[in-house]
Design goal:
Strand content: 5-15%
Helix content: 40-55%
CATH topology of the largest domain: Rossmann fold
CATH superfamily of the largest domain: HAD superfamily/HAD-like
Structural class: alpha/beta
Shape: elongated
Number of strands: 7
CATH architecture of the largest domain: 3-Layer(aba) Sandwich
Distance between the termini: 33 Å
Number of helices: 11
Radius of gyration: 19 Å
Length: about 210
């Protein structure tokens, strides 16, 4: 019998992030305000080509420097370091992934809209990410959530598995996954995540074991 497939988003599910960590470090080198920079980062359109693998790392940072008018006093290496500085772990979820990998009772897939720069940094920082069997990454396959193709790619990798589940922090991405035929729910914190898993019999084996009293 095929193992169930657990597909997880990365940002805001396994690893959290705060754009203001980047913004506050860039502020001294640009005339942009913190609010305008935040709105620009949140607009998403600027990052689409990079997260689809259409820009090299050098091309991306050159564009970023040009758009924000970043002073040359901030070196390219320092800018890259700042760009990777916004992440911090969601420890309960990383622990959950370790437990799943040790139990070996489900296939673990990582599915993320992400650039090569952030992916390589996070892989080097959080060893739990190496425990995923498949890494379905927008910059490698050329499609981003909520595009249907990224979910179709996940389904193709799932083979004959009957039970597949996906969690993500964004409602629009969950909606797209469901349209592709994947059972999915919005990630709203670790406790809610466990409650959602408990509703699905095929994934009961993934729930952390409660020690005997």
């Amino acid at each position: 019998m095929e193992k169930p497939v657990f597909i997880s988003d990365l940002g805001k599910v396994l690893v959290d992030y705060d754009p203001y960590i980047i913004i506050n470090q860039i502020l001294p080198y640009t005339s942009w305000s913190a609010r305008d920079m935040y709105d620009f980062f949140a607009s998403d359109s600027f990052f689409a080509d990079y997260e689809k693998g259409r820009l090299s790392e050098g091309e991306f940072f050159a564009r970023l420097r040009d758009i924000l008018g970043i002073d040359k006093l901030l070196s390219d290496s320092s800018l890259k370091q700042i760009w990777n500085s916004m992440f911090f772990p969601i420890r309960e979820m990383l622990s959950f992934i370790r437990q799943c990998a040790e139990a070996d009772n489900a296939r673990l897939f990582l599915l993320s809209n992400i650039s090569a720069t952030h992916y390589e940094f996070l892989m080097g920082k959080y060893e739990e990410l190496s425990l995923f069997e498949e890494h379905i990454l927008s910059y490698k396959i050329g499609h981003r959530k909520p595009e249907k193709e990224i979910f179709e790619h996940a389904l193709a990798l799932s083979g004959d598995a009957h039970d597949i589940i996906f969690t993500d922090d964004r409602d629009d991405f969950i909606s797209s996954a469901r349209k592709a035929g994947i059972d999915a729910f919005v990630f709203r914190g670790y406790d809610d995540f466990l409650r959602e898993l408990s509703k699905r019999e095929a994934f009961a084996g993934l729930l952390p074991k409660v020690p005997d009293a």
